[in-house]
Amino acid sequence: MPSMIITPKPDDSEVHTLTKEFESRGYEVEYFIPSTIIVKISINQFQKQFENLDPYGALVRGFGAAPTQKIFFRLDLLNAIEEYGIRLINSRESLEIASDKFLTSIYLEKHNIPTPRTIICENPNDALDSFEELGGDIVLKPLYGSKGVGITRINDKGFAENVFYTLSQLNEIFYLQEFVEHSNRDIRILVLGNKAVAGMYRVSDNWKTNVYAGARTEPLELSEELTNLAIKAAKITKTEIAGVDIVETEKGLQVLEVNSIPGFTALQKVTEINLAEEIVSYFLKNAKI
Fold first, then answer.
1. Same domain, yes or no: 194 and 267
2. Domain residue limits at 173
3. Domain boundary among 151, 178, 205
4. Is the same domain home to 79 and 139?
5. Is 210 helix (H, G, I), strand (E, B) or coil?
6. Are 192 and 278 contacting, i.e. CB atoms less than 8 angstroms apart?
7. pLDDT digits (tens, 9 = 90+) for 232-273
8. Distance of alpha carbon 82 from its chain centroid, rounded?
9. pTM (predicted TM-score)
10. What are the beta bridge partners of residue 133?
11. CB neighbours of 202 closer than 8 A, spacing ≥ 6?
12. Which domain CATH number covers 214?
């Protein structure tokens, strides 16, 4: 029985782990690689490459970082797949929301989920005013991105001015988030549907707590408050398989991001739960229409 993983990198170690889990259940995995797809309208029906899938769905493990036009094209590909009735986990809508930090922030605010004060704008003068409004200590993030790439803390006005006016020449959007003191530690929780499967602390020697930036992982016992917050954040961003990032602050728990393509290698090191097995089981159960 063929099943499908949508991924820009079929040689990724986590994709390989998920593939082995599918194969252990008798599935033959096919890869849908966005950068290699040629769509021929009124020549070959797009649907034909999905005809034999069982279940009639695909596990989405990313569509790849890309310039703006490619991002839109790859989201369009996911939309086209769904138009033919193929169940995507996560959905195109989920990736559109969770992959865009601006939209994620809007959804968190609308549903009263605590999140750091954030300002998004295009004009460098507005960005400089926003820097002051947020207390003169901010984290500048790219709208699209993961693994902590491109994230910069700025707490000097002269440096802020230089960065903002340089980025404005590149037509960049400014996503500015107040820096929240978090003792160089944050929390990642893996959510599958209505269940918080496992969580971990990410602890660093500096403010950047991403594992890819050198943070170490420590076990975490999920409290009811953490569980409920993570599940709610995943649900409101319409993300079935989610990695929810949370910080502990003086004002209580705050959600930083919801990841729709959550890595699980680091989390696997601090839990006895077989995460690949949980992910594939969730997909196979919920991809059936």
1. yes
2. 118-178
3. 178
4. no
5. coil
6. yes
7. 999 999 999 999 999 999 999 999 999 999 999 999 999 999
8. 20
9. 0.91
10. none
11. 185, 186, 187, 188, 209, 210, 211, 215, 216, 217, 218, 266
12. 3.30.470.20
